[in-house]
Amino acid sequence: MSNRRKFIQNLTAISAMAIMPQITKAENQKNTKMIHQVYFWLNEPEKNTAPFLKAVKTLAKIKTIKSSYIGTPAPTERRPVVDHSFQVACTFFFDSLEDQLDYQSDPDHLKFIEENSDKWNKVQVYDFTI
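RESULT FIELD:
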């Protein structure tokens, strides 16, 4: 076999190995289901909780969200491991990491942030794969 042919074969193999992790990562993003949980601490909770809760519920209509739960802290027993300090929480289920990424730039999500960010003083997000 000629040196040129060996060089081309080696170059092709090296190129394929360099691309492989990117393809694998992209495929994993398409096939990895995930949960996105967001907790909100509101400014003036007595005034803002009801309208804010209504606004959060509009997010559930975004097409990449497969299902959702939205609510307020449950009146469960006070224990050191339970945080009741937030006012509104939402849990969104996505079929893929890619869908969750699309959600982040969805016009309805961006509009929600623009119209409501003045109502919270803290937001905490927990994302995990399932």
